[in-house]
UniProtKB/TrEMBL annotation, chains A, B:
<keyword id="KW-0963">Cytoplasm</keyword>
<keyword id="KW-0479">Metal-binding</keyword>
<feature type="binding site">
    <location>
        <position position="81"/>
    </location>
    <ligand>
        <name>Mg(2+)</name>
    </ligand>
</feature>
<feature type="binding site">
    <location>
        <position position="78"/>
    </location>
    <ligand>
        <name>Zn(2+)</name>
    </ligand>
</feature>
<dbReference type="GO" id="GO:0004636">
    <property type="term" value="F:phosphoribosyl-ATP diphosphatase activity"/>
</dbReference>
<dbReference type="GO" id="GO:0004635">
    <property type="term" value="F:phosphoribosyl-AMP cyclohydrolase activity"/>
</dbReference>
<comment type="pathway">
    <text>Amino-acid biosynthesis; L-histidine biosynthesis; L-histidine from 5-phospho-alpha-D-ribose 1-diphosphate: step 2/9.</text>
</comment>
<keyword id="KW-0378">Hydrolase</keyword>
<dbReference type="GO" id="GO:0008270">
    <property type="term" value="F:zinc ion binding"/>
</dbReference>
<feature type="binding site">
    <location>
        <position position="102"/>
    </location>
    <ligand>
        <name>Zn(2+)</name>
    </ligand>
</feature>
<keyword id="KW-0368">Histidine biosynthesis</keyword>
<comment type="similarity">
    <text>In the N-terminal section; belongs to the PRA-CH family.</text>
</comment>
<dbReference type="Pfam" id="PF01502">
    <property type="entry name" value="PRA-CH"/>
</dbReference>
<dbReference type="GO" id="GO:0000105">
    <property type="term" value="P:L-histidine biosynthetic process"/>
</dbReference>
<keyword id="KW-0460">Magnesium</keyword>
<protein>
    <recommendedName>
        <fullName>Phosphoribosyl-AMP cyclohydrolase</fullName>
        <ecNumber>3.5.4.19</ecNumber>
    </recommendedName>
</protein>
<feature type="binding site">
    <location>
        <position position="79"/>
    </location>
    <ligand>
        <name>Mg(2+)</name>
    </ligand>
</feature>
Amino acid sequence: MSDWLDAVKWDAQGLVPAIAQDAASGEIFMVAWMNREALEETARTGRGVYWSRSRNKLWRKGEESGHVQTVSEIRLDCDNDVVLLKIEQLGGIACHTGRRSCFFQKLDRDSQGGGHWVTTSPVLKNPDEIYRK
Amino acid sequence: MSDWLDAVKWDAQGLVPAIAQDAASGEIFMVAWMNREALEETARTGRGVYWSRSRNKLWRKGEESGHVQTVSEIRLDCDNDVVLLKIEQLGGIACHTGRRSCFFQKLDRDSQGGGHWVTTSPVLKNPDEIYRK
């Protein structure tokens, strides 16, 4: 019954990285971590569930923000150690900063070979309004 | 000059995961690891360079296979601990199995709540022909 979970190569902490990608556009929203329980619940319920390393507990994405993820497809890479979720992001905001995607920092190179990270996407909603303190 | 490299939150091994995504279609090809040197060289040369954890050395993608990655954009997530590369995959094969993408295993759920990983993509080139032994 759970052979498919046994096939995943969990790391020393029992985790694998999981990419959440827009099922429609291919845009990458975020990368978070999953333990076995998170992946099982994601597959069973069709909602994005992760393991919060900072809070050290199961994190049902959207439980505070309402920004739930509906998962239409679950993929695994060739080494069995990275999960890819095709999702629909409710509310259109995946990032805790209130932006659509977590990947809003783009490297801008200068002619001297240096560079800096430029913020490319607007804050759609104030995080204070997303998360009740 | 290298402030942008200092901004990255390298893990205890000095690594971060890096996603390689098709710049044109949004398809995710692979996830590999980068150390500081790999990211610096990727930005400087515009070629995908990673850190091979199995071989414990710098891995210039395509050095054996010819399947070089041309990098058009480098992004960093909100936690500064995941890199996203927008790339063009030369040869159209990113995976060491000879497939286009490493994410060729798709979860197929059955009615009893179990599931199994189904291979969805064909091998485009025999790995024995890609890598000289």
